[in-house]
Amino acid sequence: MMTYFRKMKGTTKSPPSVNFSEILWSWIGAFFGIIPVAYLNYNLFEESDLVFIIGSFGASAVLIYGAIRSPLAQPRNLIGGHIISAIIGVAAYKLFIDQLWLAAALAVATAIAAMHATKTLHPPGGATALIAVIGSNKIHALGYLYAIIPVGTGVVIMLIVALLVNNIPKKRRYPEFWF
Fold first, then answer.
1. What is this structure's pTM?
2. Residue 8: inside a domain
3. Which residue range is the domain that position 149 belongs to?
4. Quick check: 66 and 59 in contact, CB under 8 A?
5. What pLDDT, on the 0 to 100 scale, is given for residue 136?
């Protein structure tokens, strides 16, 4: 039993500090990555039944602008992880609409399994699946369109910004791989 609890101590030291340049470029990327999606949501789609921004985009911004070398931040993972998770989340909601507690758990767990199986693991995808279940009436009204707008379109916009901004500084390079 003690061996089990000893594993919780960790095995390495905290990572080193990040230099100011890296912090600044992460901020610039996140700002310019979220702003077009938020602008579309609040200025073009606010009066419609469409939604253009979801909370999991904030977590994706951390990865694709702040942890650009992580395998979880690469384009395949960003796009595939979100879209697969969105479809699974909508399906879970539709199948278990009267038992949202079950739909929520199934959406997240199944999204993780599907992302693993397709080599598209992207942690914000779990939130994308969950949002499909616990989201607003606007989200639920979208049905499977949720996987295209806001999810697919939003992550493509954020990816384009990541490609442009992350490659400006000489010491940054994105992506590490596409497929």
1. 0.93
2. no
3. 20-166
4. no
5. 93
pLDDT digits (tens, 9 = 90+) for 76-85: 999 999 999 9
For residue 29, count CB atoms less than 10 angstroms from its CB and return exposed for 0-12, middle for 13-18, buried for 19 or more: buried
DSSP per position, 89-122:
HHHHHHHTTT-HHHHHHHHHHHHHHHHHHTT---
Domain-embedded: residue 2: no
* 76 class by beta-carbon count within 10 Å (0-12 exposed, 13-18 middle, 19+ buried): middle
Residue 125, both tokens: 């995808």
Q: How far apart are CA 32 and CA 55, in angstroms?
A: 16
User: What tens digit of pLDDT does each residue of 25-43 get?
Assistant: 999 999 999 999 999 999 9
Q: Which residues of the chain have pLDDT under 50?
A: none
C-alpha span between 121 and 139 (Å, rounded) = 23
Q: Tell the burial category of 41 from Cβ atoms under 10 Å away from its Cβ (0-12, 13-18, 19+).
A: middle
